[in-house]
Amino acid sequence: MKASTRSTVEAVIFLAVLVGIFWALGSRMGSGNMLKTLMNTAHDLLLNTVFYLMGITVLTGALSKLMAEFGVVTLLEKFLRPLMKPLFNLPGVAALGAVMTFLSDNPAIIALSKDRSFASYFKKYQLISLTNFGTAFGMGFVVIITMISYGNASAALIGLVGAFCGSIISTRIMQRSCRKAWPVEMEQPVIEASQEELAEERIENEEQNGIFMRFLNALLDGGKNGVELGLQIIPGVLIITTAVIMITFGTGDAGVYNGTANQGVPILPWLADKVHWIFEWLFGFKHMELIAFPMTALGAVGAALGLLPTFNAAGILDGNAIAVCTAIGMCWSGFLSTHTAMLDSLGWRKAISKALGAHTVAGLCAGVIAHFLFLLVSLL
């Protein structure tokens, strides 16, 4: 096919798909309401999600820089190397990323990766796989505490185990895919300088600056890196999360389409209902409304947690649902909106499809593991 012909065909197909999507949404919502909801949702995400994430990246960026400056990163690497290497094929310092994303959110892992001392422990395929590794723990503390508040702590902890298993699967698949696609490039160290050279740089810095100035410089430099990262994640969060919300939710509390944020046409739950037997066998879901949780978690797990009161009031939030939703919610925790931005900030856009594919599989595996583990524990 000639290049001009191919370009024409692609343009026609793209326009047909685009018009079809907007027609499907506009015919239900009304074209005016659809456009207002589109803009209001993006605006709401910018104010309440992006700036929240930027706050996290600034604080975690400063904290990670402090930890690197005062030797905590090196200490972690020594103690956790025996655990991280066999499970994740990552250096021990990667555990710091898991802790920080668990306590905050996905972008915290990239604030760490921007630090030279931290990145020096990694080869390129390992550093890129941090997007998958860190995302599997994103907002984990918030998810666990929220789930426990519904009165079933054991189910929430089972879900945590499922998410941990999912993180191993996702990280390993991502590493394997990248090494297969770019075998030579992926084996290169991220920082060419040796650990001895970096140690000499730190010693020189320590000699030139006192403890107070080292503390202040690390704090400000790390915070500045966090601001830059917060700006980089804006396109991914606004574009992808808005799209997911508009094909997942309905009218909401308003009961009618009025152009407010977070409304949409529940296409994803409708599709899930057509193959409900799959979700019943894999996840033990008896009510297809529960599918809205993992689907929403793809864009923002915080938004997914907002569905729990409705599920609980309807009497469908049982122990199995808590375990599965915890596992998938933690493992997926907004990866459609953040993976793109995170890999873009690392300069590896070409690995985005591999990261998304690996994490999709891992999230499903996390849910399945949590379901069958819950059944096993229930029999004991």
Write down the overall geometry: globular
The radius of gyration over CA amounts to 22 Å
Q: Assembly state here? A: single chain
**Helix fraction bin:** over 70%
Mean of residue pLDDT values: 81
Q: What are the segments in which pLDDT stays under 50 over at least 5 consecutive residues?
A: none
So how many helices?
Answer: 22
Order of helices and strands: HHHHHHHHHHHHHHHHHHHHHH
The number of E-state strands comes to: 0
Binned strand content: under 5%
Query: Biggest β-sheet, characterized?
Result: none
Helix- and strand-based class?
mainly alpha
Distance between the termini: 62 Å
Can I get a quick summary?
It contains 22 helices and no strands. It has helices spanning 3-29, 31-69, 72-88, 94-103, 108-113, 116-119, 124-128, 130-135, 140-148, 153-181, 183-186, 195-208, 211-232, 234-246, 267-274, 276-283, 292-297, 301-305, 308-313, 319-332, 335-345, 352-379.
Q: How would the blueprint of this fold be written?
A:
Elements: H1 3-29, H2 31-69, H3 72-88, H4 94-103, H5 108-113, H6 116-119, H7 124-128, H8 130-135, H9 140-148, H10 153-181, H11 183-186, H12 195-208, H13 211-232, H14 234-246, H15 267-274, H16 276-283, H17 292-297, H18 301-305, H19 308-313, H20 319-332, H21 335-345, H22 352-379
Helix pairs in contact: 1-2, 2-13, 2-14, 9-10, 9-20, 10-20, 10-22, 14-21, 20-22, 21-22
Structure in words:
The protein has 380 residues and is an all-alpha fold. The protein is built from 22 helices and no strands. Helix 1 packs across helix 2, helix 2 packs across helix 14 and helix 9 runs antiparallel to helix 20. The mean pLDDT is 81.
